[in-house]
Specification:
With 128 residues, the chain is mainly alpha-helical. The chain has five helices and no strands.
Length: 128
């Protein structure tokens, strides 16, 4: 996951989008701290966590959230979103965003299927 051209901060942001759209507590609770450690602003994490709008976020953060929400909520990526992803991350980066979201969507589905619970010493970070 860390070989992506988009960089670790944006990888973790994309992972959070996938985890949140699946309401996957286990996945979210392990990646929220990683996203913050990699430099994702709290405002970005909270926009994802609480399903907030993306106004006021840095362009790349806003784009990744919009990209993931379009794919996972609308099941369609607007051409304008794809073009903006290409402009901000390059063609390879634009495609890697989808791959990262897809990888962590699969992980979220598997974790949900087996009813994976957090370890007792790990707090749940997503709201119920």
């Amino acid at each position: 996951r860390y070989d992506s051209v988009i960089g670790r901060r944006y990888i973790e942001t994309a992972i959070l989008v996938a985890a949140r759209e699946m309401d996957q507590q286990y996945e979210w609770s392990f990646h929220e701290g990683a996203a913050l450690q990699e430099g994702a602003p709290q405002l970005t994490v909270d926009a994802i966590k609480f399903h907030r709008g993306t106004e006021g976020l840095e362009d790349k953060d806003r784009l990744i959230i919009q990209y993931g929400r379009e794919l996972l909520r609308d099941h369609h990526l607007q051409q304008s979103t794809w073009m903006q992803a290409n402009a901000l991350f390059g063609a390879q980066g634009a495609l890697e965003i989808a791959a990262i979201i897809g990888d962590y969507l699969l992980a979220a589905v598997l974790l949900t299927a087996v009813d994976q619970q957090l370890p007792e010493d790990r707090p749940a970070l997503l709201p119920e």
